[in-house]
Every structure is written in C-alpha cells, then in structure tokens.
C-alpha cells in the first residue's frame, strides 16, 4: 500500500458472512414450517438475482425497506408460478428475517483472516443491512469482538455508495481516509463508493467476474495477506 494503513473496513454480507448459504437455510426452515411445496433450488435460482436487484434499488433510494422485503418475495414466487397472497408473503418475510441471522456460516478463511489482521489494524464494518439483523449475524457467527465499530445504513441515514456513510464510518472510527481501506464484494457500493470518497478499496471477487484492470481484487479472503 502507498499509505500506512491503520483501519480496515469490511462489508459484511457476501464478504465475510456467507449470505447465500445462510439465506438458503432460512428458506428451508420457513418452507417446511409453512408447508410451501416448492423445489428450494428452483426457487433460489430465481430469488438470488431478484434479491440482488432489489438491494441495488434499495441502496440507490429507489424503494423502501418495506418494498424490498415484500417485492423480492412476490417476484420470486411469481417466477416459480406459486400462488400466494399478500398476507402470506408478509408472514414469510417476517419469518425469513427472524431465521436468517440465526445461521452462522462464514466464508472460508474469515476467522483466520480476522485473527491475522486484528493485532495489526483496527477493524470495522460498513453495511447497508438493517442494524438489529446485522448485529445478530455478527454475534451468532462469533465475530463481533473483532470489530471496533459497526456502521450500518440506519445509523448513518444513508447507504453505500453514498459518501456520507463513509464519512460517518470514519468519524465513528476516528480514522483518516489516507490510512483506511475498504473490502467488499460490490463494485458499486463498496469499491467505487469508497474510491470516489477517497478511501482505497479491494474487491472480494469470489465469483471471478470481469472487472476493470485497475481494481485491486481477491478471490479468496486469505489473499488479503498479500495487501495487508
């Protein structure tokens, strides 16, 4: 790194916490609980990209939290031609939010990486997720104690890539731009958001998607040791 790094900021979902694996487990529970007779793999094939689309709209202030939670379910059930009414969707959505953070699968190498980084840097989280849910994820996966500060979009009042959430996170951490770095899976929210604000960034590109050559990236969390 050109500058001396003192503070490392992580995204949570899809970066440290394995959202898709934990999400699939939550759906398995609620489908069984409510006797939803759908092939889970088929449903998830539709739900995963739909959910990502809705989160993109949410972080760009195009929809509300309520619209996100309802719309992604409605569209996914429609995609598999499953007839479900508004009230059922609301119940399923509430149960999903309840069960989702109870699973604790992390990406391979998460604990080893945090153990490696903690003696060398101050570690932080910046997440667009909802405060209570993200706190439960951190606690249930037993990684909360690694982080000095947790910044979520509810506290900051804005979402990544809005520069104000990065400003809020820096102030909370008492950190400086030139001594900080952001690691996350989303080019738009995490990497470009941080770079546009003036914080260096590394993309966690687990799916090895094509990206601009100037973007620093890793495919496995252990590769961060090459940068930090």
Automatic annotation (TrEMBL):
Q: Record's NCBIfam families?
A: HAD-SF-IA-v1, YjjG_YfnB
Q: Which UniProt keywords apply?
A: Hydrolase
SUPFAM superfamilies (alphabetical) = HAD-like (SSF56784)
**GO function terms (MF aspect):** 5'-nucleotidase activity
Which InterPro entries does this entry report, sorted A to Z? HAD-like_sf (IPR036412), HAD-SF_hydro_IA (IPR006439), HAD-SF_hydro_IA_YjjG/PynA (IPR011951), HAD_sf (IPR023214), PGP-like_dom2 (IPR023198), Pyrimidine_5'-ntase_YjjG (IPR052550)
Q: Which organism is it from?
A: Flavobacterium noncentrifugens
Q: Which PANTHER family match?
A: PTHR47478, PYRIMIDINE 5'-NUCLEOTIDASE YJJG (PTHR47478:SF1)
The name of this protein is Putative hydrolase of the HAD superfamily
Tell me the domain of life.
Bacteria
Q: Does the record's keyword annotation contain Secreted?
A: no
């Amino acid at each position: 790194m050109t500058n001396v790094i003192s503070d490392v900021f992580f995204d949570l979902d899809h970066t440290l916490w394995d959202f898709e694996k934990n999400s699939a487990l939550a759906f398995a529970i609620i489908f069984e609980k409510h006797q939803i007779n759908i092939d889970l793999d088929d449903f998830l094939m539709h739900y995963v990209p739909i959910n990502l689309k809705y989160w993109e709209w949410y972080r760009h202030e195009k929809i509300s939290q309520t619209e996100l939670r309802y719309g992604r379910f409605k569209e996914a059930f429609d995609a598999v031609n499953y007839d479900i009414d508004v009230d059922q969707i609301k119940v399923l959505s509430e149960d999903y939010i309840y069960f989702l953070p109870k699973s604790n699968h992390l990406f391979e190498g998460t604990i080893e990486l945090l153990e490696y980084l903690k003696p060398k840097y101050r570690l932080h989280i910046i997440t667009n997720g909802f405060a209570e849910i993200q706190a439960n994820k951190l606690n249930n996966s037993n990684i909360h104690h690694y982080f000095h500060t947790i910044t979520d979009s509810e506290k900051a009042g804005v979402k990544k890539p809005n520069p104000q959430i990065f400003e809020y996170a820096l102030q909370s951490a008492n950190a400086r731009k030139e001594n900080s770095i952001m690691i996350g899976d989303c080019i738009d929210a995490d990497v470009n958001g941080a770079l546009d604000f003036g914080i260096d960034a590394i993309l966690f590109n687990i799916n090895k998607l094509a990206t601009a050559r100037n973007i620093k990236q890793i495919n496995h969390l252990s590769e961060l040791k090459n940068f930090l």
